[in-house]
Specification:
- This protein is an alpha/beta fold and 198 residues long.
- It has 5 helices and 7 strands, in the order H-H-E-E-H-E-E-H-E-H-E-E.
- Strands 3-2-1-4-5-7-6 form a 7-stranded mixed beta sheet.
- The protein is globular, with a radius of gyration of 16 Å.
Length: 198
């Protein structure tokens, strides 16, 4: 069994840099969640909930899903500490097992780059979304300075749009919204947000 690197990182995952970056992402995602008060959101690959726990006021419920139990333990403590009533946790890996879950919105923030089979996970998420549901992806733009055997070096908007369309999404819009220093494997990089409707 391959060790989940995130299990070891969990307790020291929330660095100041990560917290700052999460705030930038949460602010951008928030604009995509206008009029979502009555909707359910799954944060897939939620980690410690850095992004989605900033959004509990704009949706009806949030389910944090992660394949690292330790990350979810940290998230659980935050939920208790902040007295958040509409967030719950699920230890699962949708790349390994399918789920009966349903949601109106799925958020994937800096997660897609860690999943080798991009199309496979997008198909799985598509099947979880309710009709007219929305998939929000935040990730890095393609970056040729980065090469790592286990991580995509970001995504080109055109390629990702093509895959989303092949999976069955009716429409996708994408834009780069942030440029940061040393935010992607110690390299300067830019992040995009993509919003696709089932």
């Amino acid at each position: 069994m391959e060790t989940n690197v995130f299990e070891q990182l969990a307790k020291r995952y929330d660095t100041e840099d990560r917290i700052e970056l999460a705030k930038v992402i949460a602010k951008e995602v928030r604009t995509e969640l206008e009029n979502s008060k009555s909707q359910s959101l799954i944060d897939y690959g939620s980690g410690t909930g850095l992004v989605s726990l900033e959004l509990t006021d704009v949706v009806d419920s949030i389910l944090l899903v992660d394949s690292s139990e330790q990350m979810l333990e940290v998230a659980k403590a935050k939920i208790a500490q902040k007295g958040i009533r509409n967030a719950s946790l699920l230890y699962s890996d949708f790349t390994k097992n399918t789920t009966e879950l349903k949601a109106d919105i799925i958020l994937m923030s800096l997660v897609l780059l860690h999943i080798p089979d991009t199309k496979g996970i997008l198909q799985e998420l598509f099947s979880i979304l309710n009709t007219d549901g929305k998939l929000i992806i935040v990730d890095f733009d393609k970056n040729d300075n980065i090469s790592h055997p286990k991580v995509h070096n970001g995504f080109s908007h055109e390629e990702l749009k093509k895959i989303l369309s092949e999976v069955g999404f009716k429409s996708s819009k994408m834009k780069t919204f942030y440029h940061g220093n040393r935010i992607f494997m110690n390299q300067d990089a830019s992040m995009f947000i993509s919003s696709s409707i089932k």
